[in-house]
Specification:
Elements: E1 5-6, E2 11-19, E3 29-36, H1 43-54, E4 73-76, E5 79-82, E6 93-95, E7 102-104, E8 107-108, H2 111-121, H3 137-146, H4 154-157, H5 160-164, H6 172-182, H7 191-197, H8 208-212, H9 219-232, H10 238-250, H11 258-261, E9 276-278, H12 288-303, H13 320-324, H14 328-344, E10 349-352, H15 355-368, E11 375-378, H16 379-388, E12 400-404, H17 408-413, H18 418-425, E13 430-433, H19 453-468, E14 474-477, H20 480-492, E15 499-502, H21 503-510
Parallel strand pairs: 2-6, 9-10, 10-11, 12-13, 12-14, 14-15
Antiparallel strand pairs: 1-2, 2-3, 4-5, 4-6, 7-8
Helix pairs in contact: 3-6, 3-9, 6-7, 6-9, 7-9, 12-21, 16-18, 19-20
This protein binds FE2/S2 (inorganic) cluster.
FE2/S2 (inorganic) cluster (FES) binds at residues 62-65, 67-72, 82, 84.
Length: 513
């Protein structure tokens, strides 16, 4: 944190606050105020100080002031936060939660929408009894965890499908309420059908809600458990059935045959067996653009000294979509089959460009298919290691202003936020601009693990607008699916002037591969 002025007695910080009174103002505006800083200064304390000393009369809510009631939730630098708990930092931008009508300044109207939603969801004992459902222990855990929700509405305000397509996705807060009821053995309504009807499969699993929840509730995990119930009860949208069929029949999420998926490697002479397996992924191998990145990735890794093998047409889908869409039994079987193949071919290490596959091999396989002692790394981790050890050095590519779009599996599942930025910083001539606020304020999942194309396209367009705001000429990302969606969004918005490129491709250019 930067302290803007400091004396022996006082230190002050500057905070920018959204100001808007719909009764008197034509447009919202932002005003900057100073507050005396203390290590324990919360956003609420800072706002109280500003109102007292600057006569600013900023409207904000407060209730328990001990992180219990959720009344004080605002957006701090684009991320929902309890104002009674968030420590005020110099340069913070305080705004009302996105997606709700503003009553004044930081105060939003939650009541109208919430009342309407809860009427729609229906509570009470008027439903038709559907009998006793034995709850699984893990489901009970999630259901109980959901009961500690403070109803702060923060998860809704950062949820891409809810913000961009509320008619197709009810929002994580309301859906969590339905899921809580779903796992209650005494529940009388058919909550599984209701959850699917209200958009359970339009959640992109980007984890924006989970990572910003002030109560640390695993909201995304509860969505996956609810999807497992939807699978058990066979209440599935057609798109989800198609994805399952694609994986089981063609080993590709997108239904692309093995020959086409492996076509990128035809002239590269990569051996079929070896200790270090290059796992191309059905995500990257599905499109021409993705396959071009695969070729560059393999070439640059080889140039950097890695001895790769590749399974060509025998590469199977890791099964990630089966897990995330709720087909847990089939995911287990798939994971066991892939694990067996890897062991038979003597693989000791997997290197993959796909963050989703890396997460699946690293985190889900040990849990569902047993430990295999196979090391799993993303291509970006290998590149960074080579840069740090000076095994490769990247050449200047001319001055270029770029913005990085964090794929959810890279940032929120694998926790890799700084790594891609460090790689970008090591390419001479590149200057990085960040999207207006927080790095992950509005991602779209890895290409959108939601089932609805319409919702995913709207999210991609919103994200493209955010990324374009800072004036970057190039959007860099690290997911073939996200690249494809951003390119579609650029076309739809008439922004073909913006270059959209995978970070691997950019590194390959800087290495002159
Ligand atoms: S005032 Fe109750 S949670 Fe902040």
């Amino acid at each position: 944190m930067t302290i803007v002025s400091a004396t022996a007695e006082t230190k002050t910080i500057k905070l920018t606050v959204y100001r808007f009174n719909p009764e008197t103002d034509a447009e919202p505006r932002y005003e900057t105020y100073e507050a005396e800083w203390l290590p324990s200064l919360t956003a609420i304390m800072a706002l109280t100080y500003i109102n007292k000393h600057s006569r600013a009369n900023i409207a904000f809510r407060r209730g328990c002031r001990e992180a219990g009631c959720g009344a004080c939730t605002i957006s701090v630098n684009g991320v929902p936060a309890l104002a009674c708990r968030a420590l005020a930092q110099d340069g913070d931008v305080l705004e009302p939660l996105k997606g709700y009508p503003v009553i004044r300044d930081l105060v939003i109207d939650r009541t109208q929408q919430t009342a309407e939603m809860f009427r729609k969801i229906k509570y009470g004992r008027e439903g038709k009894p559907i009998g006793f459902i034995p709850a699984k222990p893990e489901a009970i855990g999630v259901s109980r965890a959901l009961t500690i929700c403070a109803d702060c509405h923060g998860c809704n305000s950062i949820c891409p499908p809810w913000l961009e397509s509320p008619a197709r996705f009810v929002g994580p807060m309301y859906l969590a309420n339905i899921i809580r009821a779903m796992f209650n053995p005494l529940e009388e309504y058919d909550r599984v059908a209701q959850a699917v009807d209200m958009g359970l499969y339009n959640c992109t699993l980007c984890r924006a809600c989970t990572t910003s929840c002030p109560k640390d509730i695993e909201i995304t995990e509860s969505m996956i458990l609810a999807r497992q119930r939807a699978v058990e009860e066979d209440v599935l949208p057609e798109e989800v059935r198609e994805i399952r069929r694609n994986i089981l029949e063609t080993d590709s999420l997108y239904g692309v045959c093995g020959k086409e998926r492996a076509s990128w490697a035809t002239d590269l002479g990569i051996p079929k067996s070896g200790k270090t397996l290059f796992f191309a992924s059905c995500e990257y191998s599905a499109t021409e653009g993705g396959r071009a990145v695969l070729a560059r990735a393999a070439e640059l890794l080889q140039k950097a000294g890695s001895s790769l093998s590749y399974l060509y047409e025998e590469e199977q889908c890791c099964g990630a979509p089966l897990y995330f869409y709720g087909f847990q039994k089939e995911f287990r079987e798939k994971a066991a089959k892939v694990q067996k193949l890897l062991k038979e071919t003597g693989v000791e290490e997997i290197i993959t460009p796909s963050p989703a596959c890396a997460y699946t091999f690293r985190e889900l396989y040990p849990k569902y298919a047993g430990d295999s002692n196979i090391q799993v790394r993303t291509v970006l981790e290998v590149i960074l290691e080579k840069i740090r050890s000076k095994a490769i050095s990247l050449k200047a590519m001319g001055n270029r202003k770029v913005v990085f779009h964090d794929p959810a599996f890279l940032s929120r599942f694998l926790g890799m936020v700084e790594e891609p930025r460090e790689i970008l910083a090591s390419i001479p001539g590149i200057s990085l601009v960040e999207p207006k606020y927080y790095w992950g304020a509005n991602t779209m999942g890895d290409g959108g693990l939601g089932a609805s194309e319409e919702v995913n396209s709207k999210i991609a367009q919103a994200r493209l607008r955010q990324l374009a705001e800072g004036g970057a000429e190039t959007i860099v990302t690290a997911s073939a699916a996200d690249s494809a969606r951003l390119k579609q969004a650029a076309q739809a918005l008439g922004r073909e002037d913006m270059e959209i490129v995978d970070l691997i491709e950019l590194v390959a250019r800087a290495l002159e591969v």
